[in-house]
Amino acid sequence: MNIDIPAGKDAIGYVWGEMVPGIGTAAANFSLSVYQHTTLGLREFEAARLRIAQINGCLFCLDWRTDRDGAKVEEEFAQAVTEWRTTEAFDERTRLAAEYAERYALDHHNIDEAFWTRMSEHYSQQEIVELSMSIGSWLAFGRLNHVLGIDAVCVLPGH
């Protein structure tokens, strides 16, 4: 870890709650809201989330699988995300979610009109905004956890 955690303290609770409570609590609430209030389907949600986890290298995020009423993506899904361009496991919405996550994280200056045309054929404007906010959350907070070295001990409530 790159942050000193007092003995007996939970690293995540300490960093996100005690060190900067005015910011950390708001960040935690935003992070949890992405999961609690999503309207996106599980496969496109997980495709975008896992692509960001792969880019960030967040150990916990790579291991995490979102559970929706007992349903999770199949075990092979994470590998399919790395092969989003060619996998036959994805429909067009899922493929676009992985592509958008990658472009958002690595090449946001070059998201062109052709991409937006494809997105708009498969996603409503509300879904695009929701996906954008979700990707932003995962990019920021997964990267924060990895950079600070707390991703190896990260446990979300209820996991």
Q: Would you give an account of this structure?
A:
This protein has helices at residues 11-19, 21-36, 42-56, 59-63, 77-82, 92-106, 113-122, 125-148. The longest helix has 24 residues, at 125-148. The relative contact order is 0.19. The protein has a single domain, classed as AhpD-like (Up-down Bundle), CATH 1.20.1290. The protein is globular, with a radius of gyration of 16 Å. The chain is mainly alpha-helical. Helix 2 (21-36) crosses helix 8 (125-148) and helix 3 packs parallel to helix 8 (125-148).
Task: Summarize the entry for a quick read.
By secondary structure, the protein is mainly α. It has 8 helices and no strands.
Furnish the topology, listing elements before pairings.
Blueprint: H1 11-19, H2 21-36, H3 42-56, H4 59-63, H5 77-82, H6 92-106, H7 113-122, H8 125-148
Task: List its traits.
single chain; 159 residues; mainly alpha; AhpD-like; 63% helix; globular
Largest sheet: none
- Classify the fold: give the CATH topology: AhpD-like
Order of helices and strands: HHHHHHHH
**Number of helices, where a helix is a run of at least 4 consecutive DSSP H or I residues:** 8
In round numbers, the mean pLDDT is 92
Supply the CATH class: Mainly Alpha
Distance between the termini: 21 Å
